[in-house]
């Protein structure tokens, strides 16, 4: 990605080895990449620390109600088996208190775990404007000449460019948007550029897992 690391994001299919108690299989997947982020990886910081000594960890924090609104927008009433494993219930809507309590507890547990190893943990607080300076200082790498990324923004976080793009998308017919996207994908294929939807190297696995839900 921007700093040259290969990163794997959310892997919904990891619920199966986790439920089977096969943590080695999960750690093997993590070992194929330079970095991991999102679920289930965030909850496995102790196991990752043990499996890959010398690793560094980053805890991202934000205003908790903003996190809750964002999570509800993305997950809503979808019953997600991996979330059931991590939170005790796979459906977030109607169980916001459970998810919020787990969010708070996770943040506190991570800080406590690294309390005597502060050099191994960076707490990035986006509500305080943390970004490239803190991250690159922690990783001892140059600051990229680009804006700090903010994926999956909600409308409350849109800047002028985001709002303009949103207005254009809203006015374009869905068929035309799909045609434009397919055209851009063909150009990327010709140029040998990766699919932007697979930025976290998990698109194929997550699609397969969602299809499994539909069949069950």
Q: How would you sum up this structure, described in words?
A:
- With 216 residues, the protein is mainly alpha-helical.
- It has ten helices and four strands.
- The chain has one domain: P-loop containing nucleotide triphosphate hydrolases (Rossmann fold).
- The strands form two sheets. A two-stranded parallel ribbon has the order 1-2. It has a two-stranded parallel ribbon with strand order 3-4.
- The longest helix is centred in the middle third of the chain and has 18 residues, at 96-113.
- It is globular, with a radius of gyration of 19 Å.
List the helices and strands and how they pair.
Elements: E1 7-8, H1 15-19, H2 23-30, E2 35-36, H3 45-51, E3 57-61, H4 64-75, H5 81-87, H6 96-113, E4 121-125, H7 132-139, H8 160-171, H9 174-191, H10 203-215
Quick tags:
single chain; 216 residues; Rossmann fold; two-stranded parallel ribbon; two-stranded parallel sheet; 4 strands; globular
Order of helices and strands: EHHEHEHHHEHHHH
Question: What is the name of the CATH architecture?
Answer: 3-Layer(aba) Sandwich
Mean pLDDT: 88
CATH superfamily: P-loop containing nucleotide triphosphate hydrolases
Q: Order of strands side by side in the largest beta sheet?
A: 1-2
Helix content: 40-55%
Number of individual domains: 1
Distance between the termini: 35 Å
C-alpha geometry: globular
What CATH first level would be assigned?
Alpha Beta
Strand content: 5-15%
CATH topology: the name is Rossmann fold
- Helical run tally: 10
Structural class: mainly alpha
Radius of gyration: 19 Å
Largest sheet: 2 strands, parallel
Q: What ranges have pLDDT less than 50 throughout 5 or more consecutive residues? A: 152-160
Instruction: Please provide the count of β strands.
Output: 4
């Amino acid at each position: 990605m921007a700093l040259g690391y290969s990163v794997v994001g959310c892997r919904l299919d990891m619920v199966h080895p986790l439920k089977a108690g096969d943590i080695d299989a999960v750690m093997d997947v993590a070992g194929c990449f330079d970095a991991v982020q999102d679920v289930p990886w965030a909850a496995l910081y102790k196991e990752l620390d043990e499996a890959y000594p010398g690793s560094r960890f980053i805890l991202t924090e934000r205003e908790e109600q903003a996190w809750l609104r964002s999570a509800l927008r993305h997950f809503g009433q979808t019953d997600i088996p991996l979330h059931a494993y991590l939170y005790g219930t796979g459906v977030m809507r109607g169980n916001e208190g459970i998810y919020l309590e787990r969010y708070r507890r996770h943040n506190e547990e991570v800080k406590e775990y690294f309390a005597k190893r502060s050099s191994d943990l960076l707490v990035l607080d986006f509500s305080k404007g943390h970004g490239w300076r803190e991250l690159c200082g922690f990783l001892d790498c140059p600051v990229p000449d680009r804006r700090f990324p903010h994926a999956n923004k909600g409308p409350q976080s849109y800047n002028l460019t985001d709002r303009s793009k949103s207005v254009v998308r809203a006015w374009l017919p869905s068929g035309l948007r799909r045609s434009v996207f397919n055209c851009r994908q063909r150009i990327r294929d010709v140029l040998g550029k990766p699919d932007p939807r697979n930025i976290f190297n998990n698109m194929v696995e997550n699609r397969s897992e969602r299809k499994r839900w539909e069949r069950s």
